[in-house]
Design brief:
The chain is an alpha+beta fold. It is 23% helix and 37% strand. It has one domain (3-23, 30-105): TATA-Binding Protein (2-Layer Sandwich), CATH 3.30.310.110. Strand 2 and strand 3 (52-64) form a beta hairpin.
């Protein structure tokens, strides 16, 4: 399997693992968005909790220029560190949610 194919597999597995931990009810649905053609991957929750509408992105990762970009992490977990533990080099992980001038201090790729 090529590098990007491996990254796709790891990202899908991580999103599915986190989706399994999310609280669920008959009214709130966990949704997975796997756009393998454009390499956008998201974990969402959508639905009603009583009288409160829930619609939110939990995780959003992209693959751009053969690197994994973490665009949003709404969990308490260190997704970047999980990716490293799976064998993905820090040079192939970009913390997209960090301002570009701060990325050089993160220990991960700047771009």
């Amino acid at each position: 399997m090529d590098k990007v194919g491996m990254y796709r597999t790891h990202i899908k597995n991580i999103l599915q693992q986190y989706g399994n931990y999310l609280p669920s009810s008959n009214e709130v649905e966990t949704q997975y968005v796997f756009d393998t053609e454009r390499d956008h991957y998201q974990l969402f929750q959508v639905g009603w909790e009583g009288y409160h509408w829930t619609h939110g992105c939990i995780l959003h990762l992209d693959i751009k220029d053969n690197k994994i970009w973490i665009q949003h992490n709404g969990t308490e977990a260190g997704i970047a560190d999980e990716l490293v533990s799976l064998g993905i080099p820090k040079d192939d992980i970009v913390l997209g949610f960090q301002h570009p001038y701060k990325r050089k201090y993160t220990g991960f790729a700047e771009r």
